[in-house]
Amino acid sequence: DIQLTQSPSFLSASVGDRVTITCRASQGVSTNLAWYQQKPGRAPEVLIYAASSLQSGVPSRFSGSGSGTEFTLTISSLQAEDFATYFCQQLNTYPLTFGQGTRLEIK
Amino acid sequence: EVQLLESGGGLVQPGGSLRLSCAASGFTFGSSAMTWVRQAPGRGLEWVSTTSAGGATTFYADSVRGRFTISRDNSKKTLFLQMDSLRAEDTAIYYCTSFVIGATRFFQHWGQGTLVTVSS
């Protein structure tokens, strides 16, 4: 199975900060990687697919990059509504797997 | 507006069974692969099972293979998950999702989830 390791697992930041979350895959997944945001008590929502494509309706402050085994999600200027948990997911090979999550909290 | 509405969760004893349903609307259900994802309380996301648009092809996580069965009724726009031989570790919120498969792949639409609790 392909393991996805996100770093950091916990991140404290302020409104206006630029933050980057990293997702490393134990094997190459090409660009078959997505990022999801989950707020407490809610279902996840897709932000980025194909490693760098922004889902319709998602603010442009979110961006993704990478291929193969290393990927990043960047939020260029944090807004209050961005404090949530973020998960990466590989869709290259079954079983499909998720990273353990990065919890982003207000400093 | 796309809607996925799960139902069928509840409290069940270890070894028992439950059947989850997911009613879809607002998109072409019969043309979409569908997936179940679960999330144990306070934990991360775990992919459970995927079915192709027509239902002929299915995939399962090792943790549920042989105990869970995914199926669909395209005429009723409904996805199912039959869960047998339930264990305490199956306790989770179960989400159904639509699965975009093509040049790009991702879980596009998610339901609100249904809670399954396995406990004596």
> In what range is the share of β-strand residues of chain A?
over 45%
Low-confidence region ranges of chain A: none
Record field, number of beta strands of chain A: 11
Shape of chain A: globular
Largest sheet properties of chain A:
7 strands, mixed
The main β sheet of chain B shows up as: 7 strands, mixed
Structural class of chain B: mainly beta
- What is the string of SSEs of chain A from the N terminus onward? EEEEEEEEEEE
Count of individual helical segments of chain A: 0
**Helical content class of chain B:** under 10%
- Give the averaged pLDDT of chain B, no decimals: 97
Strand content of chain B: over 45%
Share of helical residues of chain A? under 10%
Shape of chain B: globular
Greatest interface and its participating residue counts: A-B, 23 and 21 residues
Number of strands of chain B: 11
Description:
By secondary structure, chain A is an all-beta fold. Helix content of chain A is 0%, strand content 50%. In chain A, the strands form 2 sheets. In chain A, strands 2, 4, 5, 6, 9, 10 and 11 form a 7-stranded mixed beta sheet that branches. In chain A, strands 1-3-8-7 form a 4-stranded antiparallel beta sheet, with no helix packed on it. Chain B has strands spanning 3-7, 10-12, 18-25, 33-39, 45-51, 58-60, 68-73, 78-83, 92-101, 105-110, 114-118. Chain B is built from no helices and 11 strands. In chain B, strands 2, 4, 5, 6, 9, 10 and 11 form a 7-stranded mixed beta sheet that branches. Chain B is globular. The chains are: A mainly beta (107), B mainly beta (120). The A-B interface holds A 32, 34, 36, 38, 43-46, 49-50, 53, 55, 87, 89, 91, 94-101 and B 35, 44-47, 50, 59, 61-62, 95, 100, 103-108, 110-113.
